[in-house]
Design brief:
single chain; alpha/beta; two-stranded antiparallel sheet; 11 helices
């Protein structure tokens, strides 16, 4: 069972959440806000840091002038290493983060926290401060605003890109919140990827399909960035300046090339990761990417990770009955969130955005990318997520399920639980599986 501290905080959390949701319902605007908002005033926000102070540099970009859609890019300092450096032969698969809790004593103590996870052992190694400091001191690493600016005249290491969607029940959370910033930094280091956290528009100011459209819009933006970067090379542009380097795209408009992605992003190995309701968005984006096919080239979605997805349905599952009053996000409050997200005339628990197994949802499940699903033992949404994964496996899609013992919804991403050993284990397990599909040397991490 969860600890006493978790149980007590859950009561407090649900009390505040219920008040916020009811206030949203009472103050529900009659007219939608096309521009929208991506963060609430009561959200604790972490400022972006364009230097590698803790091994990951970040920057915020507003990518759509017509809406509030924004992204935060997380660039790990491993991108500064030489692209022809020797591959990592350490059996720890590049784990380089010291766990954030003093109670961590190694993998041997953490196996009891896992259920249905892969049998992998090894110690976590820390990255020395001297190495990080050395990389920060590289001449081309600092621009006039004291942020990392890549030099384009040398070959740079290319990293896969992970598109991340935060949770929050459609009405709260943000891509730059303290908790999401912490989680994305951890994932960027462990997976050795560039994380692009999406600040999608929130409900009820922007109901369905706004958040889903924002997710697809960012994926299309990434494809455009890759094409712009390639175009700049063909035009002989040797160096990209984040402030004034513009090139003309095929439509005749001025478009700016994002230097971090141009220098270090490999969009042919793109992974989607969604948390709670963000998992719904990730799954939608994956389906649309399948339907788009070559129209998104050179972007290719090679895998997705759904962390305790926010799925429901009109016919209740066993966990939805037994765990209806579960910790943090119980079923009653989640129904309020769905009422705020779905338009009144479309509200249904079998809405395609809510139930992944409704007929005609498209495309065929056999076309979906490999999908890892993370579920918690004490989460009322657990069974439906498992059922979706089972349907994927029936059509030969690699779709493992990792169920964590004594865990609650958002056990690896909620602010007060981020530093627990179980949250660290979950991030490591995700990294192990993701590396099967982003490795340049093939499926070397298969099990």
């Amino acid at each position: 069972m969860p600890s006493v501290a978790v149980k007590l905080y859950s009561v407090f959390f649900k009390f505040l959440l219920k008040q916020r949701l009811q206030n949203r319902i009472q103050s529900n605007p009659q007219q939608p806000d096309p521009f929208g908002i991506t963060s609430r005033p009561d959200e604790s926000v972490a400022n972006s840091n364009p230097s590698f102070s803790d091994g990951v540099a970040t920057k915020d970009i507003h990518i759509d002038p017509f809406t509030s859609l924004s992204i935060r890019i997380f660039l790990p300092d491993s991108a500064l290493s030489k692209p022809d450096s020797k591959p990592n032969t350490n059996p720890n698969l590049g784990r380089n983060v010291v766990p954030e809790t003093p109670s961590f004593r190694g993998d041997s103590d953490l196996h009891v926290l896992r259920r249905n996870s892969y049998g992998f052992s090894g110690d976590v190694e820390s990255r020395g401060e001297e190495e990080s400091s050395r990389r920060n001191s590289i001449g081309e690493g600092l621009s006039s605003y004291k942020g990392y600016s890549p030099a384009m005249d040398n070959r740079r290491k290319k990293l896969p890109v992970m598109l991340q969607f935060h949770g929050g029940g459609w009405v709260s959370g943000s891509n730059d919140s303290v908790a999401n910033d912490f989680f994305c930094r951890r994932i960027a280091r462990l997976c050795d990827v560039i994380v692009v956290a999406v600040g999608y528009r929130l409900a009820p100011e922007n109901r369905y399909p706004a958040a889903f459209e924002d997710g697809m819009k960012v994926l299309s933006w990434l494809a455009k960035q890759a094409n712009l970067a390639e175009c700049s090379k063909s035009m002989g542009v040797k160096k990209l300046d984040a402030h004034n380097r513009h090139i003309v795209d095929t439509f005749g408009g001025a478009s700016m090339v994002e230097p971090w992605l141009a220098a270090h992003g490999n969009l042919s190995r793109c992974v989607l990761l969604g948390v709670s309701c963000g998992a719904n968005i990730a799954d939608y984006v994956a389906r649309k990417a399948v339907e788009a096919g070559k129209h998104l080239d050179p972007v290719k979605v090679v895998a997705q990770v759904l962390m305790y997805p926010f799925f429901v349905g009109s016919v209740p599952t066993r966990s939805e009955i037994k765990l209806a009053n579960s910790y943090f996000y119980d079923k009653a409050m989640c129904m309020l969130a769905w009422k705020l997200f779905l338009p009144e005339e479309e509200f249904s628990l079998d809405h395609p955005a809510a139930n992944p197994l409704v007929p005609g949802r498209g495309p065929p499940l056999k076309s979906m990318p490999p999908t890892m699903t993370v579920v918690a033992e004490h989460d009322w949404m657990r069974d439906r997520a498992i059922a979706y994964s089972e349907e994927l496996r029936k059509v030969n899609v690699d779709a493992p399920v990792l169920e964590y013992k004594d865990a609650v919804h958002e056990f690896a991403t909620l602010d007060i639980l981020l530093k627990t050993p179980q949250a660290q284990v979950c991030a490591e397990d995700i990294a192990i599986w993701v590396k099967k599909y982003i490795s340049l040397r093939g499926h070397e991490f298969s099990y």
